[in-house]
Amino acid sequence: MKKILVIHTGGTISMKQETDGTVTLSAENPLLGKEDLLPSDIQLFEEEIFNLPSPHIRLEDMLAVKRRIDRAQEEGFYGVVVTHGTDTLEETAYFLDVTLEKRISVVLTGAMRSSNEIGSDGLYNFIRAVITAANADSANQGVLVVFNDEIHSAQFVTKTHTTNVNTFRTPTFGPVGLISKNGVYFVKEAVERQTYAIETVAGTVPLLKAYAGMDGTMFEMCLAKKVDGLVIEAFGAGNLPPSTLPAVQALIDSGIPIALVSRCSNGMAEDIYDYQGGGVGLKKMGVMFVKGLTGQKARIRLIIGINAGLSGEALIDFMTV
Ligand SMILES: NC(=O)C[C@H](N)C(=O)O
């Protein structure tokens, strides 16, 4: 028997549609008691640790999920499935990927259509996630996200569509595997990663997106608020308008770590352009170029780095791997 722990956290997968078309929290989780739909060698243990729409999920909640999975590893579970709202699912998945010293499979899933909507994807995704968690190859992968018969790594997956069931994509690198009618197939090996077992998630780390004509106002506000770190979604390969530079420099001078990603949905930020505001100058100023992560994941990473006590060169190494 393969014992799989299911941690329900809420989201559309556990919601229902009202007669007026609005979608709300359901008092009873519609996924409970579906073991009959699974292969007979899988035994489910389900816990509803919260029932939150995922815009309500905080870093503290992600830490609570991580701690429950730590215990599950000690309790001898074969794997863990986390059901979660899709809005912030990628952030929780990435948080777990960087903080869990993982020895068993960990799979996140959710739904785009609530439990009683026509074509609801919740139960289907749930069953496929459990089957993936029970697969022998899944433990060797990082934290996984299963949607619509695709398996994605937590590191690069992102929600790309507001309502489509095929919303979770991995833009630059593609999925790591798929679930067919007969089995689970991985086509990529997991990238070697170092994990950081943090105990706190303190700190204010805003995320700013660059736009044409941006000036230093938002950066000055961050300085005035004494933020603990900042993530910038810069243009293209990693560039900013010249008018932001004095404020960016002031933040760096006051010791606030700044990480930079691209606002493009494909590729990675690099120091290529050597004009005013270009990546070459930003890197020389001390801005950390993060490879391939979205802004929201770079923010999770910077908070983890800060709470792991990293600073200076160690923080740069952690952020720029
Ligand atoms: N599809 C979903 O789960 C979206 C919902 N707003 C949530 O994240 O909780």
From TrEMBL:
Looking at the keywords, is Hydrolase present? Answer: yes
Q: Name the CDD domains on file.
A: L-asparaginase_II
Tell me which SMART domains the record gives.
Answer: Asparaginase
InterPro entries cross-referenced by the UniProt entry: AsnASE_II, Asp/glu_Ase-like_sf, Asparaginase/glutaminase-like, Asparaginase/glutaminase_AS1, Asparaginase/glutaminase_AS2, Asparaginase_C, L-asparaginase_C, L-asparaginase_N
Tell me what reaction this enzyme catalyses: L-asparagine + H2O = L-aspartate + NH4(+)
Catalytic residues identified in the record = 12, 86
Q: Which Gene3D superfamilies match?
A: 3.40.50.40, L-asparaginase, N-terminal domain (3.40.50.1170)
Q: Does the keyword Transport apply?
A: no
* Coiled coil segments of this chain: none
Say which species the protein is native to.
Answer: Vagococcus acidifermentans
* Residue intervals of the Asparaginase/glutaminase C-terminal domain: 205-315
Report the GO molecular function annotations. Answer: asparaginase activity
Q: What is this protein called?
A: asparaginase
Sorted UniProt keywords: Hydrolase
